[in-house]
């Protein structure tokens, strides 16, 4: 993990133990059935795992409005379990912003406008807008993975103002990296540099989805996308399986 950001460990992977067929699994069967190891077919029981620690923001995940603050559009922010399934199956649009993406920098609003124009249609109310920054070409071993381009408050408000209700990115975070925002804040004293992409959701509700993969395999438009998070009660997020449906 990057120096000074140990909290990212649980965002990229859970801490878990793996139990094999031959050890834990075999012992489980012997104990459960009161038999000898030789009685267990193939001397192999079930495999299993135990997650000791996992963030609700682990891996590809959906952020509910609650993650961005206690209120959204002047009302109590919705939790993940408040979100209807119909809100998680939306027409998709990929914005390829790779020509403008710079490590640690905010994606300019003008870049979003040009990427939208390249799709051949406007953002429509209820769209899921997926930002392709090119980050999926990096792995956790690459320092570039954590120096991703992100979204500003202005860029986020621009997309929600057009009607997007789901905002996705192939980067590990929606905003710029925390070290970049921290540096900008201390250089300017302007608190608008603090997590401004997420805080913009307080003004206009949308769901944020991070750590997407496979955006390069999709057409820019003309597909549906399903965001299928674990339905965890009262949480700010949940890991999700995201599936695009292309005719």
Automatic annotation (TrEMBL):
One of the Pfam families matching this protein, by short name: Cyclase
TM stretches of this protein: none
Biological process annotations from GO: L-tryptophan catabolic process to kynurenine
SUPFAM superfamilies in the record: Putative cyclase
The protein's name in its UniProt record: Cyclase
Example of a GO MF term: arylformamidase activity
Domain of life: Bacteria
